[in-house]
Amino acid sequence: MLEKRFIIENLQKTYCYRCGTSLEGAKLITISEAPIALVAHAVCAICKAESMVTITPTGSGSVPVQSDLNGEEFKKFIGAKAVSYDELLDLHVALKKKNIWSLLAKKEKKPANKRKA
Ligand SMILES: [Zn+2]
Prior knowledge:
The protein is α+β, with helices and mostly antiparallel strands and 117 residues long. The chain folds into 2 domains: 4-79, no CATH class; 81-117. It has helices at 4-12, 71-79, 85-97, 100-108; strands at 27-33, 38-43, 50-55, 65-66. Strands 1-2-3-4 form a 4-stranded antiparallel sheet, sandwiched between helices. Strand 2 (38-43) and strand 3 form a beta hairpin. The relative contact order is 0.13. The chain binds zinc ion.
C-alpha cells in the first residue's frame, strides 16, 4: 500500500487538466489500490473538474485523465469481470435458439442484473 503522505505529495505535483490547480486539495475517491499503484477519481477543489489519477511509487506526478464517469461508476466498471470466450459461445448458442429480445426480456425480470444504459 502506498503511504498517505506519499499520495498527497504526488497529488501536489498533479495538476487539474482544466484549471491547472494542484490536485492536493481535490476530493479523492479511490478506485483501486494495489501495492504498485493507486487509481483514484479526483474532483478539483477549485473548478470541480473530474479526472482519473494514477499514483505509482516511482511516479513524479501523474497526468489526470479526463472522464465523464463519476467515481461510483468507475468502481462499478473496474469490479466487473471480463466476458469469457465460454460466455460468448453460450450466448451464441442461446441466440440460435431464441431471438435476442426474448433473452433480454427474461433478464429484465431480475433486478440484480439491471444496468443503466
Ligand atoms: Zn480545476
